[in-house]
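Continuing from yesterday's entry. The apo prediction looked reasonable, so today I'm repeating it with flavin mononucleotide included to see how the binding region is handled. Same sequence as before; SMILES copied from the compound registry.
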Amino acid sequence: MLRQLVYISSVKGPAAAIDPEAILQASRRNNARAGVTGLLYYDGRRFLQALEGEAEAVERVYRHIAADPRHHALVILSDRTVDAREFGDWAMGYATKGEDKARLVARIAGMAATASPEIRATFESFAGLKRLF
Ligand SMILES: Cc1cc2nc3c(=O)[nH]c(=O)nc-3n(C[C@H](O)[C@H](O)[C@H](O)COP(=O)(O)O)c2cc1C
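Holo prediction written out below.
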């Protein structure tokens, strides 16, 4: 049994100070070591992240992330056990400046494709993708 945690949070301070690539790099490094996978979506204002792995590892990673001063007002949207990983590989989607909307839509949809309908819906609605499907 694995734990799957999904939370939403808001950027604290100027969004310009956020370097998604740096967060991605630290996440890849630390999460791989902890056996935690998931998906992080960033729209320039808010984060939506799914974390999956062994329960204690997810707890450790989440506590670490929750203490990060770059975001605040974390709200857990879903916390459940899953039989298998729904986000197979660690991946991250964020809207880069000027990125073609259609490309972003395809990217997020692809990353959430293997998630349960509820979780997929959460990501799709967050990303404002639904009206585009
Ligand atoms: C929205 C958000 C999501 C993050 N997600 C992760 C994550 O999944 N794994 C992780 O190790 N760090 C994540 N971080 C970064 C951590 O808070 C912390 O900066 C990082 O783990 C420090 O890594 P280091 O000690 O190896 O430099 C996230 C930060 C933010 C703002």
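Comparison notes:
- The radius of gyration is 14 Å.
- DSSP finds four helices and five strands in the chain.
Will overlay with the apo model tomorrow.
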